[in-house]
Structure formats: structure tokens, C-alpha cells
Amino acid sequence: MPVFISMLLAAFIFSPIWPLGTNPLPGDPFVIVNKQTNEVALINENRVQTVVSAATGKSEELTPEGLFTVTVKAPDPYYRKKDIPGGDPNNPLGSRWIGFDAEDTDGRTYGIHGTNDPSSIGKKISQGCVRLQNEAVESLYDYIPLGTKILVTSTSKDFTELGKEYGAIRE
């Protein structure tokens, strides 16, 4: 019986329907952050749905690259570093937080979030997170469930090409 349970558990963990698998399936939501262009794309239903301008890390290493998983979502996030409540106009996280597990963190260190400084969007200016206009992160928030894969990269490839490469878009 323990062997059967172990095999069943392994089948679930390595199944493509398991939310912590390695790649999205065509049609699943998939987010790509391109640090080279300072843009974020949402791929859903087998195509690029939207592309928005973003701010990324001041230096290349501040915004980690790789394939990550959304582990935390919060409306009006609390800014722990300076004890600023959600919804406060001084809160640099803006109106939404979509946290992911970069560098083995728990989704509370790196994320896609809004901003209280709209003029920063489009620049390499953050401490590592990906900033969007509040309106942009609010519009994406409901389309990015927990378990969604996020690719952070710096490339000249377009979003459709990356979506195909990572299995989010099928030809």
C-alpha cells in the first residue's frame, strides 16, 4: 500500500495539471517579464492577450531571471519594510501584489505590483520587483491565479516566440 500511495503522489506532482509543474499548458495563463524592453505580457487562451510597460531592477541582477510560480496575491498590499498600510498613498506597492517564488522566496520578496510613482514605469529603477501602473496590475490581477508560471528574462525575442518556446502557445 505505501508503494501505491507513493506512486500516486508522484503521478500528481509530475502531472502537467499540477500547478507547480515546469511549464504551462497551451491555453493556461502565462506571464512573461522582459527586462530588456521593460514590458510584461499576459499569455492566455493560446495567444498574447496584452502587453504593458513596466519598471524593473536598477541593475540586471536585482530582478532575478528564470521560470517562477505565483504563490501570493494581495489587493492593497501592506508594505512591511516601512510599515505602510495597504491603500495608503505613500505605499510604493500600489494597489495589487502578485508575488512569485524567485530565489527560493515565499512570494513576499519578489513580485509584480502597482506603484505610487507612475513616472517610474518604463525604467530600470526598482529594487528587484516588477512595477506596473496601478490600472495595469489591477486589470491583470484577476487573470493570474495562484500557480501561474512567470518567466523573467532579458531577450530580444518577442512574446509570441517565448510563449511557443515555453509551451504556453501552440501553433
Automatic annotation (TrEMBL):
Active-site annotation: H113 (proton donor/acceptor), C129 (nucleophile)
Entry GO MF terms: peptidoglycan L,D-transpeptidase activity; transferase activity
Pathway: Glycan biosynthesis; Cell wall biogenesis; peptidoglycan biosynthesis
InterPro entries from the UniProt entry: LD-transpeptidase, LD_TPept_cat_dom, Transpep_catalytic_dom
Domain called L,D-TPase catalytic: residue spans: 29-153
GO terms under biological process: cell wall organization; peptidoglycan-protein cross-linking; regulation of cell shape
Keywords linked to the UniProt accession: Cell shape, Cell wall biogenesis/degradation, Hydrolase, Peptidoglycan synthesis, Transferase
Gene Ontology CC entries for this record: extracellular region
Domain of life: Bacteria
Family: Belongs to the YkuD family.
Protein name per its UniProtKB record: Protein erfK/srfK
Source organism (scientific name): Mesobacillus selenatarsenatis (strain DSM 18680 / JCM 14380 / FERM P-15431 / SF-1)
